[in-house]
Design brief:
The protein is α/β, with parallel strands linked by helices. Helix content is 43%, strand content 17%. The protein has one domain: Rossmann fold, CATH 3.40.50. Strands 1-2-5-4-3-6-7-8 form an 8-stranded mixed beta sheet, with helices on both faces. Helix 5 links the parallel strand 3 and strand 4.
Length: 301
């Protein structure tokens, strides 16, 4: 677990977006979340254990269906893209950890991400699995500092962002993520979502990788949201920043960006996007979208 350096450029590129402070932002590996959030209280721990039991035992038929589809898709893709080219690919799977994802959505996201990362590793691609949320509700320490300093107007982002690493690109194992995904189901983890900065973080990680073909798939169920930030800055600050970040990435072309949206319209933000209305479709759509996008980039027409 570590906080961001005060000199680290995590803010938006435009003059209309900034963070009031980054001093309380956190980046943590999934196994270190207790250091950020504390241990779950007894009620949350019981909810987490039930969710994990469901993950391991109660979605086996759906997991089998998604896994078999991934195997078929992987075989087709392996026949179209030579192994050396596949080893030149790195993919980041970035998962929205907002409060509205609680329940079936985050459960299906965890299963789908596990199958997708296994699909990618079996192809020889490198893969990262990342998540984004906030440390607390209602702004946390950032908002308290702002209030202590007299609540200046237009402060910018007022929450403490939390970025999570479930799998980093230097992990070359070909296997299920298993217990590393358990904390994705923590009920006290899912809070607010600052999508623009999460995309900047994930894309910067990709740009530091040596692989020439870089893909970023975002899974989200709504617009960026943080009540403290929007109350102090107006309703469009976070969504406007997300649009700007996506537009810059799409113009840059070093990273191929795509999005799957759960029950909301993403076409206004992402050129390459899919909408699904039930989380039970997520695994099939995720693998199919990854394969389709890789074909467009790497398979000659």
């Amino acid at each position: 677990m570590f906080t961001r350096s005060a000199a680290e450029p995590v803010l938006g590129n435009g003059k209309d977006y900034q963070a009031f402070t980054t001093d309380f932002d956190q980046i943590a590996r999934s196994d270190d979340l207790d250091c950020v959030l504390g241990s779950p209280n007894p009620e949350d721990a019981a909810i987490l254990d039930r969710a994990w039991q469901t993950y391991e035992l109660s979605v086996t038929s759906l997991r089998t269906e998604w896994t078999l589809a991934a195997i078929r898709t992987g075989s087709d893709l392996a026949a179209q893209i030579p192994r050396p080219k596949r080893e030149d690919i790195i993919v980041s799977l970035l998962v929205d950890h907002s409060g509205s994802m609680r329940g079936q959505s985050i459960l299906m996201a965890a299963v789908a991400v596990d199958i997708a990362q296994d699909f990618l590793r079996n192809l020889g691609c490198k893969v990262e699995v990342l998540g984004y949320t906030t440390v607390s509700w209602k702004g946390g320490k950032s908002r308290k500092r702002w209030q202590k300093l007299g609540s200046p107007r237009r402060p910018g982002r007022l929450c403490d962002v939390l970025h999570i690493i479930y799998r980093s690109a230097d992990d070359l194992r070909v296997s299920s993520l298993g217990h590393r995904l358990k904390n994705m189901l923590r009920p006290d983890l899912l809070k607010e979502n600052i999508d623009g900065e999460a995309l900047q973080w994930a894309s910067e990680r990709l740009l530091h990788a040596s692989e020439p073909h870089k893909f970023l798939l975002v899974l989200s169920d709504g617009v960026p949201m943080d009540d403290a930030t929007l109350a102090a800055n107006g309703p469009d600050l976070l969504s406007g920043h997300l649009r700007k970040v996506v537009a810059e990435l799409e113009c840059d072309e070093r990273v191929s960006v795509m999005a799957i949206s759960l029950g909301h319209r993403a076409a206004d933000v992402y050129t390459t996007n899919r909408r699904i209305d039930t989380p039970a479709d997520l695994g099939l759509e995720m693998v199919d979208m990854l394969a389709e996008t890789m074909r467009k980039v790497l398979v000659p027409t």
